Amino acid sequence: MSSWNNPNPVTQLESTNPYGNYTVVDTAPKEILHMVHEHWYQFPPMNPLWYGLVGFWMVIMGCLSIAGNFVVIWVFMNTKSLRSPANLLVVNLAFSDFLMMLTMFPPMVVSCYWQTWTLGLLFL
């Protein structure tokens, strides 16, 4: 039986921190630990509720951003009266934001679901 003063060693998490505290770095995969700066060893892990909240927020914002930027690109490219040099900058901004959200919000949602980076070195 365990207590606060004498915890069960099976329930303790293995720490990668040289100082012995459980930190946010302990959730990182072993193959990317060499890239983590020692600054991050001072922070405790995030509350699991935050992963769900951030993941939910990213799904909502990602879908709105992709849909909104697609509509902006479609309207500006299909309406001849809106084709001006100034509006080309708006289309350029919408296109770059569309591509950024199309490529970056899915890995963010996956990371929030698994509560760590699971995509390996390929996406870093």
From TrEMBL:
It is a multi-pass membrane protein. The chain crosses the membrane at residues 49-76, 88-116. Gene3D superfamilies: Rhodopsin 7-helix transmembrane proteins. One of its GO terms (cellular component) is membrane. Residues 68-124 form the G-protein coupled receptors family 1 profile domain. InterPro entries: GPCR_opsins, GPCR_Rhodpsn, GPCR_Rhodpsn_7TM, Opsin_lateye. This is Rhodopsin.
